[in-house]
Structure formats: C-alpha cells, structure tokens
Write a structure and sequence with these properties.
The complex is a heterotrimer of chains A (about 250), B (about 180) and C (about 55).
Chain A (H helix, E strand, L loop, with lengths): L2 H10 L1 H33 L13 H28 L2 H32 L8 H20 L5 H15 L2 H11 L19 H51 L1
Helix pairs in contact in A: 2-8, 3-4, 3-5, 3-6, 3-8, 4-5, 4-8, 5-6, 5-7
Chain B lengths: L1 H27 L1 H4 L5 H6 L8 E7 L5 E5 L2 E9 L4 E7 L11 E8 L5 E8 L8 H9 L16 H5 L3 H11 L1
Parallel strand pairs in B: 4-6
Antiparallel strand pairs in B: 1-3, 1-5, 2-3, 3-4, 5-6
Chain C lengths: L7 H46 L1
Keywords (chain B): Cell membrane, Cytochrome c-type biogenesis, Heme, Iron, Membrane, Metal-binding, Signal-anchor, Transmembrane, Transmembrane helix
Protein name (chain B): Cytochrome c-type biogenesis protein CcmE
Subcellular location (chain B): Cell membrane; Membrane
C-alpha cells in the first residue's frame, strides 16, 4: 500500500512533471516524425493493394491509428478520473482538461476516415451497426466531457463532474472492442488481436504498426506539450492572483 | 489514508454498478442491436409482410444473374448462412466489392413467395487483408477459390505461394 | 501523369484530414507552450522586482 502513493506523489509534483516532459518531448517528437514519415510513405506508396479493396485499403493506415488513439485517450481520461477522485492528484484534472480535445479529435477523425472508407467499399457512408454507433457514442462522451469540465464557475466542481462522466463512460470501451464479436455488424472483426495471429500480410502489417506507433508518440508529445503549457498558465494565474492580493493588502494597510 | 481507501472503494463500486447495468441492458436489447438477420433466422421467424429488415449472409456461388431492363441493372442472387438460402432481387448498381462468395447485407422486405426484394445492398468485407499478387497466385494454383469460403491463414501464404519450397515443406509436413 | 487509382479522392481526403488535424494540434500546442512560458517569465520577473523593491 505504501509504494503506490509514493510513486503517485513523485509525479504529482508539477515541477517534476515539467522536468520529465522537457527530457521526453524531443524524443517523442523525433520518434513521431520518424515513424509517421516512414509509415505514411510505406502505406501510401509501397504497401501492396488489397486483392478485393484495391488501393482504397490504404485508408486503413490512418483509420486504425485514429481508432486506437480515440480509445486509448479515453482510457487515459478514465485513469485521470480515478486519480483525481480517489487520490486528489493535482495533475490529473489538468491532464483531463488537456487530453479531452485531443481524444475528441482522434474520435472524429476515426469516424470521418471510416466514412471515407465505407462509402467506396461497403457502399454507404454510415450505418447504425454496433461498432459505428458505439464509436459515435465515444465521440459524444468526449464532447460532454469537454463541455462539463468547463461548465462551472468553480473549476473544482466541473472537474469532479467531468471525472464522474469519464469514469461512467468507460463502459463504452469494452463495448467498442467487442461489438464486432458480440453482435453481427457491417464492420469487420479486428485483424490484429492479442490472442490470434494477424489476418493480414506482413507487407501491410508493418506500415500499419509504424503509423500507429508514430501517431501514438505524436499524441503523447501533444498531450505533454499541452499539459506543460497548462501548468505554466496556472502558475501565472496564481502569481497574478497573489500579487493582486498583495496589492489589496497594502491598500488595506 | 482511510478516506482515500474509502473513496477508492466507492469508485470501484460505482464502476461495477454502471458496468453491470450497461451489460444487462445490452443483453436485454441484444436482438435489436444485431445489424442484420441470417436467412435461417428470417425463415424461422418471418417478419410481418412489407416490414423492412436487413438480410445478411454469403452470396451463393453461381447464383448471380445480372440483366438490364430499360437501362437499369436488375440483379438476382441467393444469400445463405449455410443452413438456408433466400433469393434476393435488387434493381440498381451493386457495390464494387459485391461478388459471389462475398458477405453482403441487403435492406428490404420478405415477399409472400419467400423471395426478398432489396432496396439497398451493402458489401461486407472480412478482416483478411491480402495483397493482390498473393490472391492471384492462390487462385491460379487452385489453392483457394474466393467463391467458396474464407481465405487461408495469413501465416500460410508465404509457403503456399512460394514456387519451389512449397512442395518441400508440404512433403516435410506429411513426412513428419 | 501516372494513372490515379479508383477512389483516390477518398484516400487523399482521409490522409489530408488526419495529417492536417495532427499538424494543427501539434503546432498550436507548441505555440501555446511558448506563449505560456514567456508570459510566466514576464509575470515572475515582475513580481520578483516588486518583491525586492518592497
């Protein structure tokens, strides 16, 4: 029981986080650019066309990373919620504010690229099957979280309400994951699973893994940058508030 | 410490409650969540006449007939789930991925004569992504016919398409 | 001009949207960090000067 709070409190310190982020950011950025560049070039120009989908299969190399990031960012939100609700981790609420819009972007891009893939292949932009609908719900959960966390005059109340929403919405994650197994859907089952061998050729799997890794590192870099900026901004606010307080004190004296 | 532990248990209890509530709800509505019905289901429980339903399954090999009436393509084909087959009529352009052996979903209604009239046909594709050259080679050598079922495992494509070593591994396998 | 594949508009649109949004997010985050650092430095310097003056 002792180890957990110690570990938590080490990174609870915003100064410690800023130092960590200063060290990590160049590596994350470089890795993201490298892997994304290689993955996108490979996916667009060198990966083979699918035997039935033809060149359109290349949309997979951006669609799958967005789907993965939309889910993982939400998982991040849920973890932040637990840290904030249970341990009152001072960084968790700031992190939740910054992760929300990024995850919403990923979910929106996942839906849009999916639509762009569905129209030429399935013959429709959108159907209300379990997979598509549960991802749309995820997108609306993000929007609700973004709105709720800023909805109150007193930030702490909004953050608490948003944390509860994020935690409750986490039930959508397993629904998204297993929707293609539990119900029959228009969306195909996952090609890459933890248990089975991937059902695609290695010449398609590699660029997919590269773009996924690249986008993941990039999103990590964006979140670290936003969180660092948020810490600076909140310090500025504190300093301004204190100086305003000093001024009123001297006036009173 | 005490309060933190209590808050942790409260959060765990709330998540468990919401999770089981969601699970039970989904279980209850499970039949409404399915996107399409299989031919055998549709035959066992025929919907009310003229009710719009989705019928999903595989296009039976050799069942597709395309004609053109007044400039409009008229298609007839059978959809099967392995247990029952239903004849589908559809006027309009079929999606690119439509072929015999492909999984498709047809939106329409079951007629009195047991045939299905579709107003929209969507092509499903499975989770197998195969380079065109591999597919051509497998089809050419007769190891796989897309009209009759799923593609072989991705891990076996290399040995199946290799010109010479394939026979070696094959004999090795049978030998061992 | 090489032959464009069928549905190339869909492929181009999805790559452009995804990469464009990512670039926008990354650049705006970078600018925001730079701005927030500069502002904090300014406010810190100001309050330090006031502190020594007092």
């Amino acid at each position: 029981m002792r180890a957990t709070p110690n570990l938590l409190h080490r990174y609870a310190n915003p100064g410690q986080f800023l130092r960590l982020s200063r060290v990590l950011l160049p590596w994350l950025t470089a890795g993201a650019l490298l892997f994304l560049g290689a993955g996108v070039a490979w996916g667009l120009f060198f990966a083979p066309a699918d035997w039935q989908q033809g060149e359109t299969v290349r949309i997979m190399y951006v669609h799958v990373p967005m789907a993965w990031l939309a889910s993982s960012c939400y998982l991040g939100l849920a973890v932040c919620s637990v840290l904030s609700l249970v341990w009152r981790h001072p960084l968790a609420d700031l992190a939740a504010i910054e992760i929300g819009p990024v995850g919403a972007c990923a979910a929106a891009l996942c839906l849009v690229t999916g639509s762009l893939w569905g129209e030429p292949m399935w013959g429709t932009w959108w159907v209300w099957d379990a997979r598509l609908t549960s991802v749309l719900v995820l997108f609306f959960l993000y929007l609700g979280h973004i709105a709720l966390i800023r909805a109150f005059d007193e930030p702490a109340r909004g953050q608490k309400a948003a944390a509860v929403l994020a935690l409750a919405g986490a039930v959508d994650l397993p629904i998204i994951k297993f929707s293609v197994q539990w119900w029959n859907t228009l969306h195909q089952p996952d090609s890459i699973t933890l248990t089975g061998a991937p059902t695609m050729s290695l010449t398609m799997l590699w660029p997919l893994l590269l773009t996924t890794l690249g986008f993941t590192l990039g999103v990590a870099a964006v979140i670290f940058t936003r969180l660092s900026a948020a810490i600076h901004e909140s310090r500025t606010r504190q300093l301004l508030a204190r100086s305003r307080l000093d001024r009123t004190d001297t006036h009173a004296a | 410490m005490k309060r933190k532990t209590r808050r942790l248990w409260m959060v765990i209890a709330c998540v468990a409650c919401i999770g089981s509530a969601a699970g039970l709800t989904l279980r209850a509505f499970s039949s409404n969540i399915v996107f399409f019905m299989a031919p055998s289901q549709l035959k066992a429980h025929p919907p009310a006449a003229d009710r719009t339903v989705r019928l999903g399954g595989m296009v039976v090999a050799g069942s597709l007939h395309r004609e053109t009436h007044n400039g409009e393509p008229v298609n007839a084909f059978q959809i099967t789930d392995g247990q029952a087959a239903i004849e589908v009529h559809f006027t309009g352009i079929l999606p690119d991925l439509f072929r015999e052996g492909q999984s498709v979903v047809a939106l329409g209604s079951l007629q009195r004569d047991g045939d299905f009239t579709a107003s929209e046909v969507l092509a499903k594709h499975d989770e197998t992504y195969m380079p065109k050259e591999v597919a051509d080679e497998l089809k050419r050598t007769g190891k796989w016919d897309p009209r009759f079922g799923k593609a072989p495992d991705a891990s076996s494509w290399d040995t199946m398409t290799a010109k010479k070593p394939a026979s070696d591994t094959q004999s090795l396998k049978t030998g061992g | 001009m090489t032959n464009l594949p069928a549905h190339w508009q869909y492929i181009a649109a999805s790559y452009a949207l995804t990469l464009g949004c990512s670039a926008f997010l990354a650049i705006s985050a970078m600018l925001r960090l730079r701005r927030s650092k500069a502002r904090l430095a300014a406010v810190e310097g100001h309050s330090r000067r006031r502190g020594t003056a007092a």
